[in-house]
């Protein structure tokens, strides 16, 4: 028996911008809502903390970069990616080189160019620059559905995600009432932030990154290549014609 119910609410994103020497922009985002009644320490308190920590590191060590950096904390991700679906279109007339989505990133083991082949060399140079801290699984190139990078893809913006390990004794409580702060090791935030901040700094200063939007036909082909069509249709996020 349940007495739960649904009601309409108004929510808001939080956006903080570090102006760069150019209008070219890197977006770094994470959702701050949690699932149902869960406290959301892993999903996505980790991402919330990582975005704050990256902003703090750059504020201290590199407050002005070649590109503008826009930090976004999304609301309503668990209810249908609403925060990113609202924010991504606001960038329509701006030159955006990449959007990084941090959703349940534990100890980073790989960085994902999400199907954008032209980002792979950039990410490989980044990974090599980490030296002994190089990501164990390197660079992957797999598009996937279910988090806040997708609305940016639909706007033709190249997106990046990380894969990161959260210990199994903690991650078993994902989307659960027991997703509490004691499940997150403090060193997870510091170690993951080091890798993430290094990437953000590199992208904010890497010469030659394109801000040209990916054509809609290429985005459709990308989603079809990774067999995302049915899932996106099921939640009303497939904007293309269906055969």
Description:
Helices cover 34% and strands 16% of the residues. It is α/β, with parallel strands linked by helices and 243 residues long. Helix 1 packs across helix 6 (186-205). The N and C termini lie far apart (42 Å).
Short description:
The chain has 243 residues and is α/β, with parallel strands linked by helices.
* 3D shape: globular
Task: Give the fraction of residues assigned to helices.
Answer: 25-40%
Low-confidence stretches: none
Distance between the termini: 42 Å
Residue share in β-strands: 15-25%
Strand order of the largest sheet: 1-3-2-4-7-5-6
Please identify the structural class as seen in this structure: alpha/beta
Largest sheet: 7 strands, mixed
Radius of gyration: 18 Å
Mean pLDDT: 95
What series of H and E elements makes up the topology?
A: EEHEHEEHEHEHHHH
Number of strand segments: 7
Question: Counting H and I runs of at least 4 residues, what is the number of helices?
Answer: 8
Topology, please?
Layout lengths: L13 E5 L6 E7 L9 H21 L6 E7 L7 H6 L8 E6 L5 E6 L7 H10 L9 E2 L9 H5 L4 E7 L2 H4 L14 H20 L10 H10 L3 H6 L9
Parallel strand pairs: 2-3, 2-4, 4-7, 5-6
Antiparallel strand pairs: 1-3, 5-7
Helix pairs in contact: 1-6
Give short descriptive properties of this protein.
single chain, 243 residues, alpha/beta, 7-stranded mixed sheet, 8 helices
């Amino acid at each position: 028996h349940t007495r739960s119910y649904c009601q309409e609410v108004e929510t808001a994103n939080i956006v903080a911008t570090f102006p760069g020497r150019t209008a070219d922009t890197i977006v770094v985002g994470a959702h701050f809502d949690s699932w149902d009644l869960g406290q959301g320490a892993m999903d996505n308190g980790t991402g919330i903390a990582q975005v704050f920590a990256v902003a703090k590191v750059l504020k201290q060590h590199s407050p002005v970069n070649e590109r503008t950096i826009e930090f976004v904390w999304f609301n309503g991700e668990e209810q249908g990616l609403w925060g990113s679906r609202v924010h991504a279109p606001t960038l329509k007339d701006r030159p955006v080189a990449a959007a990084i989505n941090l959703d349940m990133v534990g100890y980073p083991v790989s960085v994902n160019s999400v199907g954008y082949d032209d980002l792979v060399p950039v990410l490989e140079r980044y990974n090599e620059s980490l030296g002994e801290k190089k990501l164990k699984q390197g660079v992957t190139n797999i598009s996937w559905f279910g988090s806040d990078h997708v609305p940016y893809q639909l706007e033709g913006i190249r997106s990046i995600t990380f894969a990161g390990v959260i210990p199994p004794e903690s991650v078993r409580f994902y989307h659960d009432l027991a997703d509490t702060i004691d499940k997150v090791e403090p060193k997870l935030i510091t170690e993951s932030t080091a890798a993430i901040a290094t990437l953000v700094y590199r992208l904010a200063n890497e010469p030659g990154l394109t801000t040209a939007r990916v054509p809609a036909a290429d985005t459709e082909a990308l989603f079809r290549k990774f067999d995302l069509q049915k899932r996106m249709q099921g939640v009303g996020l497939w904007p293309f014609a269906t055969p």
